Amino acid sequence: MKRLAMHDRSRAILVMSSIPVFTRNLVWAAGQARRPCWVMTPHQAHRWKSYRHVLGVETIDQQQLIREDAWLQQFVGDFCERRGVGTVVAGDTRCSRFLLRTAPLLPPGVQSFPMCEPELFEQLYDKWRFAALLQELSLPGPPTTLIRCVEDLEGCEIDPPVLIKPTQGEAGLGIETVSTSEELQRIVTARPHLEEKPIVAQSYIPGSDIDLSLLADHGHCVAWTIQQRAENGAMRFVQRSDVLELGQELVRSTGYHGVMHLDLRIDRRNGSVLILESNPRFWGSLCYSVWNGVNFLELGLRLMDGEDVTQRFHSIYTECPYLGVTRRSLPRALAGGWPAPGRLTATQRQSWRFHHRLGEGSVRDWIRQKLRAQ
C-alpha cells in the first residue's frame, strides 16, 4: 500500500463515482493538481490503482449508494478517518446524492467538496422541474411539457419534431427525436408506467450545441469554460458573453454553490441561445477543461481553503485534441512522452506529459483496455 506523509494527510481526497468516465476524469484532475486521492467505486476493474497519486481503491455496492443506507454512511466516515482523507468529492449523480445525505455526518476534519442544497440539486437535475425553473426566472428554454399519460398529448401544444426524455437521467440515455405527432402517439402509448416514470416532450431546436461549465461560490461564478465539439473531434473553447450571462443569472438567482454543467443550444433560425438541461455535478468532458488549465476540481478545493480562485482563473479560448494515451500516441508514451505534438499549447503539453510519461497509469490503462477487448 502506498504511504502518505503525515503533513500531506489533509490534502488527500476521496473520489466517489459510479460511472467510469467520471471516475477517470476526476482521478486525472487530482493527478494534475498533485493531490493524492483514494477512489471509492462499485466497479471491480481497479485500473486507477496504477496511477502514481492514487493511494488505493475501495469497492462499494452501487445499490447501497441509492438506498438510505446508514451502514455505508458510517463506513465512508470511518474510511476517511482511517485513511486521513480531508475532502470527499462526488462524481456522478448517484454519488452526489449520497454525499448530500452524508455530508452532515462526516467526522470532524472531513469536508464535502462544494455542493448546493439537496432540494436545489433535485430541482436542477429533474428536466421538468428545471424547465419550470427557467420559466420562473424568465430564462430562455425550449417549450417543454410533462407527459404522464396518453391523455396529456391532447393538450400538448408543441409541434414536432420534438425530443422526448426521461425526467431524470444522464449521458443522453433515453432521449429520442420524434418527427411526427403519430409517432409520438405510438411511443407514448407503448410506454409502461408513465405515471411513475413520466417523460418530457421538448421542442427540437435546429442549430448547434454549446456547453457552459462553471464553478460557483454561493451565487457567484468564479470560473467557467464554454465549449463546442469541433468537426475534427477536438474540443473547442470559445468566448460567448451571451452564454456566460445566462449561466451567471441562473447561478445568481438560485444562490448556486459548486460545479455545474449546462447544455445549451444555439438556434440557427435567429441566433438565440436556449438552456436545455443542467447537471449540478461534474461532467463527462471535464478532462478537456483540465487539459487547458481550468481544473475545476483543484479550483473547488482551493475555494474550500478560503482562497480567492478568481486570481487563479483565466478564460480559455483554444482548441484541444484528446490528450490521453491512444494507439497512435503509444510509441511516444513508451519514449517517456517525448516528443509531444508541436501543435499543443504550453498548458496542453504539460497535460500530454502527465499522461504519456513512463510509469504513469494512463499508459497501463490503455494497454489493459485493449487486452480486455481482445
Protein architecture, described:
It is a single chain. The protein is of the alpha/beta class and 374 residues long. The chain folds into 4 domains: 6-113, Rossmann fold, CATH 3.40.50.20; 115-140 and 205-320, ATP-grasp fold, B domain (D-amino Acid Aminotransferase, Chain A, domain 1, 2-Layer Sandwich), CATH 3.30.470; 143-203, Dna Ligase, domain 1; 325-374, no CATH class. The chain has 13 helices and 15 strands. It has helices spanning 20-32, 62-66, 70-83, 93-102, 118-125, 127-136, 181-190, 241-254, 286-291, 296-304, 330-334, 346-356, 361-373, and strands spanning 13-16, 37-41, 54-59, 87-90, 111-112, 144-147, 162-166, 176-178, 199-203, 207-216, 221-229, 235-237, 258-267, 273-279, 319-320. Strands 14-13-10-11-12-15 form a 6-stranded antiparallel beta sheet. α4 (93-102) links the parallel β4 and β5. α5 crosses α6 (127-136). The longest helix is centred in the N-terminal third of the chain and has 14 residues, at 70-83. The model is unreliable at 3-7 (pLDDT under 50).
CATH class designation of the largest domain: Alpha Beta
Strand order of the largest sheet: 14-13-10-11-12-15
Count of the domains: 4
Indicate the structural class: alpha/beta
Q: Tell me what the CATH architecture of the largest domain is.
A: 2-Layer Sandwich
Which stretches are poorly predicted, pLDDT < 50 over at least 5 residues?
3-7
In percent terms, what proportion of residues is strand? 15-25%
The N- and C-terminal alpha carbons lie at a distance of 30 Å
> What is the averaged pLDDT score?
91
- By CATH, the superfamily of the largest domain comes out as ATP-grasp fold, B domain
**Total helix count?**
13
Largest sheet: 6 strands, antiparallel
Order of helices and strands: EHEEHHEHEHHEEEHEEEEHEEHHEHHH
Rg over CA atoms, rounded to whole Å, is 21 Å
The share of residues in helices is 25-40%
What is the CATH topology descriptor of the largest domain?
A: D-amino Acid Aminotransferase, Chain A, domain 1
Total strands: 15
Specify the overall morphology: globular
